[in-house]
Amino acid sequence: MPLNLETLRLVAQLHHAYQNRQRDPLTQAFARSSGEEVLALQFEVAERSNTPLTVAVLDIDRLSEVNERHSHPHGDQLLADLPKHIAKTQRQGDMLVRWSGKRFLLMLPNTSLEHARIALERFRKHGFGLRPDGQPVTLSIGVAERQADALASWTVLVEKAEARALRVKQEGRDGVRGDDEVQHAHAA
User: Fold this and answer.
1) pTM of the full predicted structure?
2) Which domains does the chain carry?
3) Is 186 exposed, middle or buried (CB count within 10 Å of its CB: 0-12, 13-18, 19+)?
């Protein structure tokens, strides 16, 4: 599909946003403000080019338990280490954003829901590190895709992924939800 002038302008803005991105000081993941700017542009490019755009909300399971039992510095270390574990299997065009306290958002441009699930399972197989008690760090992951979920804005895309991450938490944690199916670690 040939790119029109407007799409090229958006791609240039996207490149500029990537170049000027800011990092979260603790995790070195992109800061939310940068993530919102890039996600808005990514959504617009995906709409214009009729391509998929998937986001995954990664919510660290039981972080408050780590803070309470082992201290906040241990919880902070767990937060700081998570992006390093993700970076080992993350594709170059993907973007990890610290969305809020213990939540990260992973942008997967030009990625279908099925391909996102494959990538997320690769992350889960690699692991997210260990808690201070030696147990593996687990995540409740919600996934949404612009086309498959028929979503009209990037904010609704994120809301859908957040709602799915919450459902994973409610259904036992340590899983991935991209629609009505939850895939937990013990079932994989």
Assistant:
1) 0.85
2) 24-177 (3.30.70.270)
3) exposed
